[in-house]
């Protein structure tokens, strides 16, 4: 392969974070020509011995491919399938008649990021299946079936549920009507039920996706002994409106507390999609994505993923942001990466597991040994030296001494 036309030296390597950011921005709306040029650049970097930078570009290409795989192939047909009038920025929004508070806000497709959220393969497959249904309407009609009209997304806070709902609206090229649940719930007897009716009436009039975020605040268990009769009326009204909207368009509910939902509410949703906390491979992918445009050693990415076992994507993003801030203030000294984790663990004590917090603030030899013994992801002696600011032989001596000490104890 002839790569002589791409010169991998001097300025291009000095400014690789800019090159990386440009490639990621370009792949937000990919085409074959762009992809080919990034592939050529990646191959040239690899041939020049810049394996880490080549791997970064390959990661950008892989992420773009995954987003394309999830995206529907025909947007116009899905949009046409939604009955009703067209929403515009000037469309009057529904309000609470008692307080004049707006009951919803409208997010238009152009306001939503084109970059898809990162999820595990099973979740991505489920989302792709939903989008495919809306883009194969004639095939479904031939079998006398309709695409899914309701989807409940649940999971721990910070797992990307709301971001996913926004991205679905982007892919179907439809406005997202986001219910303001604080306005829906009124202190006036009977007003809350009326507000729910007004919201659904608005969503049913226009071509849109209705999003009920923090859904559990509306759909509490009707037999909750702590609740008065008003909440029962609210849930009944909600059920009636969900039934009526089924023939109109797509409704998405989101909850962090699925155990609070009435069983009758669960039955109203065809798709019940749980978003789990990310596993290690996904945390690695997320860390690389969140790190842009910073150009950091791969060992730091692996360390971020290793320390955040059990954390959500939002928590990992917060940690990466803290890392980037400290790097901007103090420079790129590798050994200071642990300062980020200690600072983060102090300010966010609930976001790192107790054993790993103990390693952070304990004896350095224990930390080095724990990283060396990690099977997923594995850390080489070179990477441990890079993280600790030591050479490989020193790291090896520390590990041997630590094992000897523990054995004698």
UniProtKB/TrEMBL annotation:
GO terms of molecular function: ATP binding
PANTHER family assigned: 26S PROTEASOME REGULATORY SUBUNIT
Top-level taxon of origin: Bacteria
Pfam families associated with the record: AAA
AAA+ ATPase domain location: 147-279
Keyword terms, alphabetized: ATP-binding, Nucleotide-binding
Protein name: ATP-binding protein
Organism field: Mesorhizobium dulcispinae
Family the entry assigns: Belongs to the AAA ATPase family.
